[in-house]
Design goal:
Layout lengths: L3 E4 L9 H16 L3 E6 L9 H13 L9 E2 L4 H13 L3 E4 L3 H13 L15 H9 L3 E6 L6 E6 L3 E6 L7 E8 L8 H11 L4 E5 L3 H13 L6 E5 L2 E2 L15 H7 L3 H10 L14 H4 L13 E2 L2 H14 L2 H14 L7 H11 L8 H4 L2 H4 L6 H7 L4 H14 L6 H15 L3 H13 L7 H10 L3 H6 L3
Parallel strand pairs: 1-2, 2-3, 9-10, 11-12
Antiparallel strand pairs: 4-5, 5-8, 6-7
Helix pairs in contact: 3-6, 6-7, 9-11, 12-13, 13-20, 16-19, 17-18, 17-19, 18-20, 19-20
The structure holds glutamic acid (GLU).
Length: about 475
């Protein structure tokens, strides 16, 4: 069997992390089986679907490194096939028109509530005779089309993640609407479950891998496959992504779209790596830090967990830092430069920029940290409390003043090694403690007592002529 899987996003919002994780599992499975990964844009909700969201979804998938094998299918373009399938079900007597008005249906639900029953359609128009139908039509009633679901039916499937599944027909809410309300001589807009079955079948999808929130839909879809005499795909339901409280990750948890993560400074490699770990455990001997392009041959759906996967920011941050630290400085610079340009900073030559990157790279967790870490090299940092108290400590100002004279007189080549030599010689000739000059220099250059390597910092600032002004502001 040729493995053909698909991602079927609705373009009603930006690429959501849950959809992206489903995409990853589909992609990993397809690639591990030498199969195909396809995309179907489910745009039948005309009001909420937008082209910009389709673009965002495709861009997000590409950013994560997921490539697809055929042109994306646009669901709304197959509406004739969907309506033909509904017609087929009507002709076979497996679907029927239901003329119940919204009002009547609401009353029915109210009554069920009063009786302590769960809401469901009571199949009231399943067996209308011709006269009854004519009467409704004469009244000018519109109708939806419903697919018959037998309460006694048991639906079985072998789920590749969850094992043997059984679902009761009685738990599917009664006969299911497959076409929206329309005048009684027309077929209204086809609805999700019917459309998915028709499309998956046309696309020859072999495996449907999607979130466990679709389990009840799978039961309904299996009944439709049977009714339409189509071959069912194999199903696999992935666990949901949960927040730290164990609830489904939602907008309220802050970021949920891939674009948000990208804008925060997460790298695509770390995101793809982390999302794969959200629900999948690598086989023994395989490191948790990996590139999806390298590990796909080892991906097996059997190793996807059944229970929900808690989103762990710390782990994602750790992976992101690992990825950034593994890049060469040129690649890091490519990501940081746009952030610096945004700040309207005057950016010196490439060599200088690369030295700055080498200095700050080990302290980056997010790419965006590269803005704050670089700020003191582009803007004069204010003197902070700890910096001021260092400068005011005994002998500090005099030492800095003497150092400034030394700098002005010597022609050092502004490398960290030369800075080291200058400080050593200076301390010896002036009989000044090295600790005093180093601490005071740090306070002068960075305004505070914490920061990156001092000699490298000094060297960078000296190369753009910014060390003098910082030292002289102290007296
Ligand atoms: N459009 C559906 C969704 O985004 C597709 C579900 C499926 O994979 O069948 O949830």
């Amino acid at each position: 069997m040729t493995v053909r899987v698909r991602l079927a996003p609705s373009p009603t919002g930006n690429l959501h992390i849950g959809t992206a994780r489903t995409a990853l599992f589909n992609w990993l499975f397809a690639r591990s089986q030498k199969g195909q990964f396809l995309i179907r844009i489910e745009d039948t909700d005309k009001e909420r679907s937008k082209q910009e969201f389709t673009e965002n979804i495709l861009e997000g998938l590409s950013w994560l490194g997921l490539n697809w094998d055929e042109e994306p299918i646009i669901q709304s373009e197959s509406i004739h096939a969907h309506k033909d399938a509904i017609q087929e079900l009507l002709v076979k007597g497996l679907a029927y028109r239901c003329y119940a008005t919204e009002n009547e249906l609401n009353q029915m639900r109210e009554q069920q509530k009063l009786n302590g029953l769960p809401p469901r359609y009571d199949n009231r128009h399943r067996n209308l005779n011709q006269e009854e139908e004519e009467l409704f039509k004469k009244e000018g009633r519109s109708s939806v089309i419903r697919f018959k679901i037998d309460d006694n039916e048991k639906i079985y499937w072998k789920d590749l993640i969850r094992g043997q599944m059984i679902w009761n027909g009685a738990d599917l809410g009664g006969d299911m609407v497959i076409a929206r309300r329309a005048p009684a001589n027309q077929i209204g807009d086809p609805l999700y479950n019917l459309v998915v079955v028709v499309d998956d079948s046309i696309m020859r999808i072999s495996h449907v891998i999607r979130g466990e929130d679709h389990i009840a839909n799978t039961a309904k879809q299996i009944l439709l496959y049977k009714a339409l005499c189509k071959t069912e795909p194999i199903f696999a339901h992935t666990p949901l992504i949960l927040n730290s409280e164990g609830r489904k990750l939602s907008k309220r948890d802050g970021v949920t779209s891939i674009k948000d993560f990208k804008e925060m400074g997460y790298t695509s490699d770390a995101m793809a790596n982390y999302m794969t770990l959200l629900g999948w455990s690598p086989p023994e001997g395989l490191d948790e830090k990996f590139k999806i392009k390298e590990i796909f041959p080892k991906f097996r759906l059997e190793r996807v967990n059944k229970s929900g996967a808690k989103f762990d920011w710390e782990k994602l941050n750790w992976l992101n830092a690992q990825v950034i630290h593994s890049w060469n400085s040129k690649k890091v610079l490519e990501s940081l430069k746009p952030l610096w340009i945004e700040e309207s900073w005057e950016i010196p030559n490439e060599d200088w920029c690369l030295s700055l990157v080498e200095l700050i790279q080990p302290s980056l967790t997010l790419l965006n940290d590269g803005k704050e870490e670089a700020r003191p090299f582009f803007e004069l940092p204010p003197l902070m409390k700890d910096g001021i108290s260092q400068i005011e400590s005994k002998g500090a100002r005099e030492a800095l003043q003497k150092l400034l004279t030394e700098i002005d007189q010597s022609h050092w080549d502004k490398t960290p090694a030369a800075a080291q030599k200058l400080v050593n010689d200076f301390c010896k000739s002036q009989d000044i403690k090295k600790g005093l000059i180093m601490k005071s220099l740090r306070a002068a250059l960075l305004g505070r007592m914490q920061g990156p390597d001092l000699l490298a910092t000094w060297s960078l600032l000296a190369r753009i002529g910014k060390d003098r002004e910082r030292i002289s502001r102290c007296f």
